[in-house]
Write a structure and sequence with these properties.
Strand order of the largest sheet: 1-2-3-4-5-6
Helix content: under 10%
Distance between the termini: 45 Å
Number of strands: 6
Structural class: mainly beta
Number of domains: 2
Number of helices: 1
Mean pLDDT: 83
Length: 102
Amino acid sequence: MIDLTEYGYNKFLNRPRQDSQIIEHQISPDEFDWIAPEISANKVNSGQAVSLNNQMTIDFDKGEIILRDGGIVKTEIKKFLDSSFGIRVYNAQGDAVVNQTG
């Protein structure tokens, strides 16, 4: 098993910026992907996971899952502004066609 702390990553897989220091073992994101092809779900503690095509966002801090078609939100699972929690699915006009919140 690779100890990523040797490359400047912390236990949350974040690497703090070191503008004033040169990190000997710094690796690029591509190198990281190559040496760590899988990350166990129990290693994800906070932040956002966004798909490469920006179609899906999972926000671990807010407890939200948002699906998009292009830039248009199509499905949301989250706590909404009216304090309800659930799922809403939208049509092409942006109208909620499924609203299972409560």
